[in-house]
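fyi for ur records
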Amino acid sequence: MKTRIISGIVVALVLIGAGCLMFTPVFDIVFCLLAGAATYEIMKVAGVKDKPLRVIAIVLGALFPAALVYLRQPWIIATILFCIVVLYIILTLARHQDISFSDTAISLYATLVVPTGFACILLVSDFYKIFPGSIDKYESFFMTFTCIAAALLNDVFAYFVGSAFGKHKMTPILSPHKSWEGAIGGVVLDMVAMMLFLLLFVKCFAKKAFFMPAWLYAVLVIVTAVLSIYGDLMASLIKRNYGVKDYSHLIPGHGGIMDRFDSVLLAAPTVFIVTDIFAHAAF
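which gave:
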């Protein structure tokens, strides 16, 4: 527990440091590197041995968030996705003795699905550019904070509530330590904490009335917290499928990047999509 807490504090400090550089290229680079690291961990856990395939997947995984953020035209993104799929098909056919279909499938998942979660964090941080005059930099910062904090705090609250009161296992095979009591308690406490953060932001840091109604923000946090659980369970399913406990040992007491950020991979897209729909409708 001591190691876990210390590592958690270090991770928090790193994220705070990245947050201080949010509106600089450094922030984008940090999350692109995290996406590349997560891609590497998945490829390693899945046992993909073909080196060209692994290298291509890791490089594409690191670059994909930047592509989504800086090349926002739908036709450009569609073209990139098509080219990536074609590249994997050609590589698989050319090296079919070394690359199995499962290798190709996991490579596509690691290259496209996982980095999209990190890309959405960067997209949320750019809301002040997407909706100038309606959402300012301070609100963009707070919504980016929501992407990460709502997911990670839900993990923490669920762990402690589950440890104290958990009796009914949620998924005994995928995640033996998760309980329904922990899940429900985590979501409730997460919403309370994030509403307090919103109140603090509005009272101390906001430069104008918050662009989103408080009730909608509360609903967003609840949905984000619930979906973050599914992101966590999906990452656990992959680990169980390949018979490993952690994706890596990069973060002592926590595992790897995927172990720590798995819940964020659905949380960040949720915040981006809901906020984007609301902003387009309201502004």
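The two ends are 47 Å apart (CA to CA). thats all i got for now
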